[in-house]
Specification:
nine-stranded antiparallel beta sheet; mainly beta; six-stranded antiparallel beta sheet; 1 helix; Beta-galactosidase, Chain A, domain 5
Amino acid sequence: MMRAPFGTLPDGRAVTRAVISGHGLAASVMTLGASLQDLRLAGVAHPLVLGYPQLAPYLDEGRYFGAIVGRYANRIGQARALLDGRQLQLDRNQDGCHILHGGSDGSGTRNWILAEQTEDMVTLADLLPDGHMGFPGTMLVRAIYRILPGPMLSLTILATSDAPTLCNFAQHSYFNLDGRDTVAEHRLSVPARSYLPVDADLIPLGPPAPVRGTALDFRRPVRLGERLAGPAIDHNLCLAPSRHARPRQAAVLQADELRLTLRSTEPGLQVYTANHLGPGAPGLAGRPYGRHAGIALESQLWPDAPNQPGYPSARLEPGRIYHQQTTMRFQ
């Protein structure tokens, strides 16, 4: 069990990094954003996620790398939502129009509390006050990272609120399993028959559409290099409902002989191929990240659900517990 300082925020608050390990897997988690800062597998020379060895890039080009984003992951159009007849005006942190990942002070940019740590488990917590970023209800959220046999990294996200509110969290790591400059040689499969078409601001246009015949059809393994030169991939793929709130397969990502199997309770998976990345600070492997250096597989509810009839509900009632379970198994 190990924890150590990982830099200081501009306002003077300290960021702490905790390292957990077991079964040949080691995960570094920092309090800023409850972020998975590094992930290593025995016998593999390179990290499995994009990240930085220092804090500074996480405040700029590395924003959201590995973070737990919320209280509403992804986007809500026009930063407005109706809840119990009340029109919520949310923070407009995307182009001054929409809310992205819970707003400018969303959970992915906040400095969480390191609440508990053992050799193979770490728990972080944050308290979002009533009215924070425009959302009603004081919300307590906990993120529990645990290493299990497999080896597997398990993430449990729990949240409660003292008033009706909206709740949707996602883990925002960028994966790269072969250590190359891009994920072009990775093969991805996602058992989704439909996706959410979006406008130019990545706000859903309405009901799901079939993936058949589109660049978002990953029902069979696809070499990502075949898709990266086409339209940008940053879409929610619609998964079958989870039975009995148990994780079910959401994606398989493979490069060379290494395979990541992602399972989750969530009905959506945002697939994003890091189109925005450009050379900047050196990453964990000592070189800057460029376009398509990683792929984000964000288990979540669907974006803009409060404004879209028929989408899975993001409503969280007082006395109820939001419970997301996501696992990442490496073979």
